[in-house]
């Protein structure tokens, strides 16, 4: 088992998470408001690392448009199936689902204008390895946006501090913006 595969949830848990997100997004449609904070622009290349069922990936793809690209990356095969179904249903041609093996992904290096690790960083067992991989993917002038998820901010800051690849540029109650060192 690859190191990052320890972070992979079971199939039943994944399906329950996806269903919970679908209900939340239906009852509380605040995801678009959150995404507006990020400053995505048409033509950007975006990586949604830990994309889960694709709730962000699809919206990112709609914003960056046909000239942009979204890599939807996850360690769970079901995540990529969910993203592929949504991509087909919405006829989006700018999303590429990719399976990560542990903390290694097939995403090209120095490609991401914006890299997202949303609703997942709290569950990462080896944050230094993940942050190193994210550092490989992001452009030198790109940014990483991550959130605390189900952990206190101090724990998120501690995990980022384990990596010598990132500097926190900005913090809000919702997320952190990090830039490569």
Q: What do these coordinates show?
A:
- With 181 residues, this protein is of the alpha/beta class.
- The chain has one domain: Rossmann fold.
- 36% of the residues lie in helices and 23% in strands.
- It is built from six helices and seven strands, in the order H-H-E-H-E-H-E-E-H-E-H-E-E.
- The chain has helices spanning 11-27, 31-36, 55-64, 77-89, 127-137, 153-161; strands spanning 45-49, 69-74, 95-99, 112-117, 138-146, 166-171, 176-180.
- A seven-stranded mixed sheet has the order 3-2-1-4-5-7-6, with helices on both faces.
- The termini are far apart.
- The model is unreliable at 1-5 (pLDDT under 50).
Distance between the termini: 31 Å
**CATH architecture label name:** 3-Layer(aba) Sandwich
Mean pLDDT: 90
Q: In the CATH hierarchy, what is the class? A: Alpha Beta
Q: Could you spell the SSE succession in H and E letters?
A: HHEHEHEEHEHEE
Task: For this entry, give a set of tags.
181 residues, alpha/beta, Rossmann fold, 7-stranded mixed β-sheet, 6 helices
Q: Can you give me a brief rundown of this structure?
A:
The chain is α/β, with parallel strands linked by helices and 181 residues long. It has helices spanning 11-27, 31-36, 55-64, 77-89, 127-137, 153-161, and strands at residues 45-49, 69-74, 95-99, 112-117, 138-146, 166-171, 176-180.
């Amino acid at each position: 088992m690859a190191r990052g595969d320890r972070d992979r949830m079971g199939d039943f848990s994944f399906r329950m998470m996806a269903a919970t997100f679908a209900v939340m997004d239906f009852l509380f449609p605040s995801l678009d408001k959150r995404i507006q904070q990020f400053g995505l622009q048409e033509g950007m290349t975006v990586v949604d690392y830990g994309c889960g069922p694709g709730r962000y990936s699809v919206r990112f793809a709609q914003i960056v448009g046909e000239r942009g690209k979204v890599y939807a990356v996850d360690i769970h095969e079901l995540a990529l199936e969910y993203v592929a179904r949504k991509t087909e249903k919405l006829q989006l041609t700018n999303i590429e689902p990719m399976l990560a093996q542990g903390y290694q992904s097939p995403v090209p290096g120095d490609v991401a204008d914006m890299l997202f690790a949303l609703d997942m960083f709290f569950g990462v067992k080896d944050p230094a390895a993940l942050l190193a991989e994210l550092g490989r993917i992001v452009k030198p002038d790109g940014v990483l946006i991550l959130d605390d998820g189900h952990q206190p901010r101090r724990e998120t800051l501690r995990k980022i501090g384990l990596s010598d690849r990132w500097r926190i540029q900005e913090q809000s109650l919702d997320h952190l913006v990090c830039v490569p060192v």
